[in-house]
Every structure is written in C-alpha cells, then in structure tokens.
Amino acid sequence: MEYRNIKSKERQSFSCGPKRRLRQEKRQVQINVGLMVPHGCDLKPVRGRTLPLFTDPEIAAPELLKLAVQKMRVFYKDMDEGPYVLLYPDCSEVVHVPGTERPFTLAEYKKEIGKTYCRISLFICIEKHFREDDVGSESDSDSDSEIVITTRSRAEFSQADTVIAISDSEDNLDPPGCSLAKSTCYSRYTDLYAPCVEEEEDEPVPVNVESIPDTTMENADLTLLDIIANLSHPIDRGRVSRFNISRSNVWDGAIRGFKRATYSETCDMLVKFTDDTGAFEDGIDAGGPRREFLTLLMNQLRDRPIFDGPPGRRFLVYNANAVREDEYYLAGKMIAVSVVHGGPGPHFLSEDFVRYLAAQSSFKATIDLVTDEEIGKALREIESAASVEALQECTLRHSTMLQTAGCLRHTSTLEGKRTIVSDYLRWYILDRNSSVIGRFKEGLSALNFLTALQQYPTLLAPVLFHSEEKLTALKLERLFKPDLSPSGSNRRLREGQTLGYWADYLLDCEEGQAAVRVQDLFMFVTGLTSLPPSGLEPVPKIEFLDLPFPMANTCTNTLKLPLLDSYNVFKSRMDYGIQNSPGFGCL
Fold this sequence. Notes:
Elements: H1 2-14, H2 18-25, E1 29-39, E2 42-45, E3 51-55, H3 61-75, E4 84-87, H4 106-113, E5 121-126, H5 127-142, H6 152-158, H7 179-182, H8 185-192, H9 224-231, E6 236-246, H10 250-259, E7 267-274, H11 288-302, E8 307-308, E9 315-316, H12 320-324, H13 327-340, H14 351-357, H15 373-383, H16 388-397, H17 399-404, H18 416-429, H19 434-444, H20 449-455, H21 457-464, H22 473-479, E10 481-482, H23 490-510, H24 518-526, E11 541-545, E12 551-553, E13 558-562, H25 567-579
Parallel strand pairs: 1-5, 6-7, 10-11, 11-13
Antiparallel strand pairs: 1-2, 1-3, 4-5, 8-9, 12-13
Helix pairs in contact: 11-13, 13-19, 15-16, 20-21, 22-23
C-alpha cells in the first residue's frame, strides 16, 4: 500500500490536467511599454513610441526595466545610453505596488488595479530627466499653493490606460506636436495595432456596463488613410499570392486562392482573369485586376447564405454547411484583406452588427432586421400591446418563441415590452449565432484589422456597414485629371471639345440617359465601383487617342477618350466600349 501511494504521488508530480497545462503555457503575458520625456515642467509620453512587451507576470521592477529598455533599443536606434527609470502613468517611480509597501511585481500590480495585462502600460524615462522633474516638483510645493482646474477631457486622459515609454536624448527631443510626424511607419503601426491578449484566468467582476461612460479615445490627428497605411505595412510587396479567377464564378476562384497552402495575407496579390473562352487575359497585375477582383468578391460575399437580413443591413446567421467549409473564417479574412490591400469594404453589414464587432456597448437593433415573417409579426404584436393585459396575452401566445430565446418573463408594467423585444433581437442576431460570429472575428483579425476596428470605430466602422459614398458626375469630373497637349495646338482644341463631351456624358450616366451608370464607368477605369478606404493610387487621369472607342488601364487608372466630331457619336461609342469590356455585367 505504501508503495502504491509513493508511485501515485510520483505520477501526479509529472502529470498535469488541461487547465494546469494551459496556465504553464501562458506564463508569458503582454503589457505595453513606451517613452517619456520632459515637456515644459512635466514629463509626457512620446507619441508613436509604444511597443508590446511579453514577459513573466512575476517579474520585478528592475528586470522589467531592463526588458523595456532592451525592447526599445531594438526598434529605435536613437535611444540614449541612460540610465533609465521605470515609471507609473502618474510619473512616480516603480518601486512598490501603489498604495502598499509590497515590492512591485507585475502580477501584484495587475491584481491591485484590476485590469487585464494587455491594458497595463508603464513608462521608462532617462533618470536625469526624472530627477530634474522630481526636484522641480519639490520646489513648486514650497511655493504658494495654486488651484489647477482640469478639463473633463484631460481628466479622462489622465485616467486612461498607461503606456511604457522610453525617451530620446535631450538634444534629440522633438518639439511638441512633431513626434508623430517624425516617427517611423513601423513604430506607428506597433503603437496603434499591438494585439490585445485576453487573460482567461481573470475572474469576472460584476459591473453595471450602462453606468460606465464610453472612454474610447481616438487620436484626432489620424485619418482613415493613415490607419489603412499602418495596417498595410506588414505586406511584403516582393512576394505574391496568386489568384486565378473566372468572372463567371468569382467565388470558386477566391476560395481556391485563400485556401491554398502557400497563401498569406502578408503577401501581395497577383490576380489573373480568364476570358470567356477560358484563356488567360494578357496583362500584368499592377493593381487594377486586384481591385476588380476584390470588388467582385465583396459583391459575391453579400449574397452568401452565411448572411441574413434586409439588403444593406445584413448580419451573420448559422449555416451548417458553411461551418463545415469554414466559410465564416474565410469571409472575415476576405473583408480584412480587401480593405487593407486597396479594395472596397463590404458596405452591406448592419450598423448594429458592426458596432458589436467594434466592441461598443450599445446594441439597438430594430424589428425590421428580422426576415422571418412569423417572428417579425409576433414581435410587432408585443411591441404594439396597448395594455398590460394585452402584453401578458401576447407573451403567453408566443411563449414557445420567447422561451427559446430565454426572454419569457412575467411583466407587470407596459414598459416591459421594450425589454422583451430588445432581448429577443439581441438573441436572434447575436447570441444564437455567437459561435460563427467568433469564427468570423478570427478571420477579421487578419492584418490586425479587428484590433484597429475596436480601437478606431468612428473611422473604420463606416467601411463595413452600408454607408457607401455615392459616386456623382461632379466627383468623377474633379477626380480625373486630363493630360492635355500644349496650349494653342490644333490637338489641344479637339481635346478641349472632348472634355466637354466627357462632362456631358457623366451627367447622362448619372441621370440614366446613357446605357451605363456612373459606377459602371468607374469600374471600367479603376476596377472599383466606389472610392476605396485606402484611397486611390495613382490619381486617375484622362488621355486622348485617335481611335473610335474608349480604352482604359485599370493598373494606372487611366481612361483614354476617343477624339470624335460630335457628342452623339462620342456617347454611342462610349456606351458600346464600356458595355463590351471584360467583366461588364458581373456586378
């Protein structure tokens, strides 16, 4: 018996369950480190110099300082020799856990502030600068006291998540407002889109979410083009992933390309179209075929059975066959790749669904999102109940439907009907589809797009939901820049007349007086039906040629207009040329 007990203890010491093994694998956690420099009488973090740092949660302050300085020096070669000190967000030195006499460890600090590791930020600063600031603070305390009025926005910023920062030498300090412009593209990328690592072992704390104000802070200096440019930085333009696409079946070619073992979203895309006879079209993909492919792909994705809801307000819905084919993951990846690689956004998702993906707390779906007629009718009956008795009768009549969603409850007030409808819509759109939404988000995380969406929802959310900016004749006229002959030449006179024809033709397209739409014309020249989130490069231009029909180069965004003698001939030739171009009618 004693021998069995000894052997049992030995086996237990060498084995561990899944939970314990998971904890052992998670010894490395992520925090954020940055750089702090003098700014007037204070210390301020340097923009664009924040990096993720992976470390042991039991690490002490001296070792953490060494790792932070080492990480900064790897990415920034202009780092001062130091020595450095490790600082909290309030510019106090990291020695003890705040409010206690316990020596600092990352795990103890995390426990004290109640945040996940990925939201913890610390700063490093040159010791000389820190001591000078400390002395200045002491001298200020000896002078007459003064009242400092802090604005609400500044107070919220002071309470925001911290960042670990490392300062440059005193001679290399950038003046205020210049640090972002001078920071490298990679440093801005790592600052904005460091991945968030959620710690599953944290115990949830009950919090009233509705009572917490929205503290999401977006950099007012950033534009949508800046964010897309940062996201596209990891793309290696020297390597390509090939896509062989037939316009008659874009989805099939896309699935083959994205599932290819050698495919990587960090490679550039090389798209080759086959013509109507199955032969490959001549031409090199310098951007035009890629944009056309991504435009056609987003249109195909809109009609896939993984989406439900009215046009322009669609959301994910469970489909067993799509789960087997892992279509939800592929759909998320396709959207991320399209936006970052210079294509369009989907522009067909529900705004409420996109706000949920962006981790915003509000969810205010309406009954018109429900495509099932019986369910929609039942919800409208509950919503329009005029008395408590009528409401109770409605809930009883539709008890099976409500019980499935966990929304069946006794209501003693008429206001309860709004809660019932709201809870059911949340279950109908989100909760019952949570597994496929999770897989979709994994695909959307490609190229850190989901992280950027959650950090900058105001700028990126409109890329996904139905807010496509309408193309107009005036916008296209201003967008295309003509390449004219020297002033005074006979050819310049003909080109000027043709530009007048071009402006009138745009108006006819917009007003439905031509055989094609403005979107068809834009697709003919650029491979896009709308302006992409990443901007349009190169700038579209107009050239002129002595041929009877228009020509276009989608790689250079160049439209070549025919020089003709009358507007009626010009219009008919433009209609014919665009309608007979490859891919017309595929949208």
